[in-house]
Amino acid sequence: WATCSASRPNGQRAYFWVVLRANTRYTLTLAGGLSASAPFTAPTDLDLHVLSPLPTTDYVASSDQGGQVAEAIVFTPTVSGQYFVLVYGYYAPGPAAPYRLEVVGPP
Q1: In the prediction, which pLDDT does 57 show?
Q2: Cβ-based neighbour number of residue 86 at 10 Å
Q3: Residues 6+ apart with CB under 8 A from 55
Q4: Segment among 6-20, 59-73, 76-90 with least mean pLDDT
Q5: With b meaning 16 or more CB within 10 Å and e meaning fewer, what string describes 31-40?
Q6: What is the pLDDT at residue 107?
Q7: Can you tell me the distance from the alpha carbon of 55 to that of 38, in angstroms, rounded to the nearest whole number?
Q8: Would you list the DSSP string of 64-99?
Q9: What is the pTM of this model?
Q10: Alpha carbon 26 to chain centroid, angstroms
Q11: Distances from the Cα of 81 to the Cαs of 14, 18, 26, 102, 107, in angstroms?
């Protein structure tokens, strides 16, 4: 597993890469606080996406719920490789919106 805490202003993107194994279940969460399910501070709305390995980088999984709820994706890749995780500041009107990103897989 991995955890990252950072901030993202409105309309900005942050990319992280993770190495995922084929046929292995992963849970990715994006939250606004110390726990994986904490909501974002109103009115912040961040979205979470997984992009396929190079060279295509197609969207393969997304969570873009409206409002301040935490985002979550359960994803089982069919191909091993370096995937990109995108945190998108859909609506974050302040200077920066703090968030916590977790990727959890088997030990």
Answers
A1: 85
A2: 16
A3: none
A4: 6-20
A5: bbeeebebeb
A6: 81
A7: 34
A8: --STTPPEEEEE--SS-EEEEEEEEEEE--SS-EEE
A9: 0.87
A10: 12
A11: 19, 8, 13, 18, 18
Question: 87 forms bridges with which residues in the sheet?
Answer: 14, 48
Cβ neighbour number for residue 92 with a 10 Å cutoff: 23
**Contact (CB, 8 A) for 4 and 103:** no
Is the per-residue pLDDT at 32 higher than 80? yes
Whether 52 contacts 60, CB under 8 Å: yes
For residue 19, give the amino acid letter: V
For the chain, percent of residues with pLDDT exceeding 70: 88
